[in-house]
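Write out the 3D structure for:
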Amino acid sequence: MSKKTQRLDLLAALTAVMISFQARANGELSHRMGNGIEAALVSFGSGLIIISIVAIFSSSIKEGLRNIRTSVATKELPTWTLFAGMLGGSFVAVQTHIVPLIGVAIYSVASIAGQTAASLVVDRIGLTGGGKKHITPRRIAAAAFTVFAVFVSVFDRLDAHDVSIFAVLLGCLAGALVGVQRSLNGKINEHSHQSYATSFLNFTIAN
């Protein structure tokens, strides 16, 4: 395994940890505010403020945004892909609603299950821009085991009515939205050549 691959794996793991912290923070915010939508707005709104301040002083972000505009103008990048941020906003909105109901642990597993399933479909239709990828038995098995993990994690609590099956399914849906969003962001990054420019676009669209 190359050092670059190791770094990417480490970043992926770090991202998963950060999502768990985000889920906990947004869930608590939703509980205290009593409104999941308002909590999601605070979450994305604060992110937009921070990245906007950074963008003012970052020439690379401005260049990335110009690259995106040029790609859209030349129709190399479909306009509809720019709305990937709406999927992220929907993910946070769902997250803030259901984490207080099912907890971070079950939500995280449900979300990962949704991401895994969506990734199979996204790769098969070639939404990422890197070409279509076949759905192999190994990838199907990985998705199946992940979904099974959701069932195992909630099974012992179903009789006590501690877990809402509907909330768990919403967690899977939220994960699926993220899976699609990441593929669209990958396509946008191919044209922006600047991940922070893509993030700025995401936060702007989501708000």
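The helical segments are 3-33, 36-56, 59-73, 84-125, 137-158, 165-192, 195-206.
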